[in-house]
């Protein structure tokens, strides 16, 4: 959820139970604007909220140049004091993969188990666990409308498409109109003939319709002129788009637990 449009756009997800009070919106706008200036970021996005046992973690991501790669991830507990999380590494993601259960809500807490100690020689901190959850979530369910971002031959980075005017009302209700906002995997497997039919300036990511796990998305028209897409794989993630406009956004609010039983539920 883009900081610049956060107060208005977050209300589009109210039907999904993702709510922020006026006080929380004001605090986020103030604190994240300071984050943008402190770290010299071009854009700041509210990623969402992880519900912990003793306290909740707010997570935000900042963009320096490329909208997709090398994002900075930050967290806070009180809507005001943000702390930078370390970049995700393969070792960090592997070590955190054995952690089960809820976030505690205590930044000093270390997750310990037999598997964790065997792999790391100690516990895993909340920082590492937060980074791993954010990365895994983004790879699975972060989506954007087709055409909202662009990559041109003259630019070596992904940027916002300033001429994007939104999807049509009919196309907005189809999964083929949305792309996974993460490193593409299925795109590389397409044949040359299939790639020839794509516009690589906007089709440089994997299409949501090509997901191997079918049925993991719920697409609904809300209030007639709003499309809301919810993930059944990561309960708590919702995306919205207002057809024929450039308005879109997403946010996660949940326990930071993937529904690993979903393949057996469909």
From TrEMBL:
Any GO CC annotation of this UniProt entry: kinocilium
Source taxon at top rank: Eukaryota
Subcellular location: Cell projection, Kinocilium; Cytoplasm, Cytoskeleton, Flagellum axoneme
Xref: InterPro entries: Radial_spoke, RSP9
Keyword check for Cytoplasm: yes
Pfam families assigned: Radial_spoke
Any one GO biological process: axoneme assembly
Keyword annotations: Cell projection, Cilium, Cilium biogenesis/degradation, Cytoplasm, Cytoskeleton, Flagellum
Family label: Belongs to the flagellar radial spoke RSP9 family.
Name this polypeptide is given: Radial spoke head protein 9 homolog
Lineage, uppermost ranks: Eukaryota, Metazoa, Chordata, Craniata, Vertebrata
């Amino acid at each position: 959820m883009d900081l610049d449009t956060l107060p208005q756009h977050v209300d589009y997800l109210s039907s999904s139970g993702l709510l922020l009070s006026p006080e929380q919106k004001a605090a986020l706008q103030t604190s994240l604007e300071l984050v943008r200036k402190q770290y010299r970021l071009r854009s700041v996005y509210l990623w969402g909220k992880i519900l912990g046992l003793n306290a909740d973690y707010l997570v935000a991501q900042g963009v320096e140049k490329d909208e997709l790669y090398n994002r900075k991830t930050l967290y806070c507990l009180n809507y005001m004091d943000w702390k930078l999380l370390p970049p995700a590494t393969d070792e960090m993601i592997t070590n955190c993969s054995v952690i089960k259960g809820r976030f505690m809500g205590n930044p000093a807490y270390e997750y310990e188990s037999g598997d964790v100690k065997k792999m790391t020689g100690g516990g895993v901190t909340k920082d590492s666990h937060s980074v791993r959850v954010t990365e895994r979530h983004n790879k699975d369910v972060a989506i954007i409308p087709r055409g909202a971002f662009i990559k041109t031959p003259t630019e070596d980075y992904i940027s916002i498409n300033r001429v994007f005017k939104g999807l049509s009302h009919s196309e907005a209700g189809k999964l083929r109109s949305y792309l996974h906002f993460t490193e593409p995997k299925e795109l590389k497997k397409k044949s040359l003939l299939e790639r020839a039919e794509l516009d690589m300036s906007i089709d440089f990511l994997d299409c949501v319709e090509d997901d191997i796990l079918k049925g993991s998305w719920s697409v609904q028209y809300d209030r007639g002129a709003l499309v809301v897409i919810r993930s059944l794989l990561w309960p708590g993630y919702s995306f919205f788009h207002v057809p024929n406009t450039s308005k879109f956004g997403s946010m996660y609010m949940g326990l930071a637990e993937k529904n690993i039983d979903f393949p057996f539920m469909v």
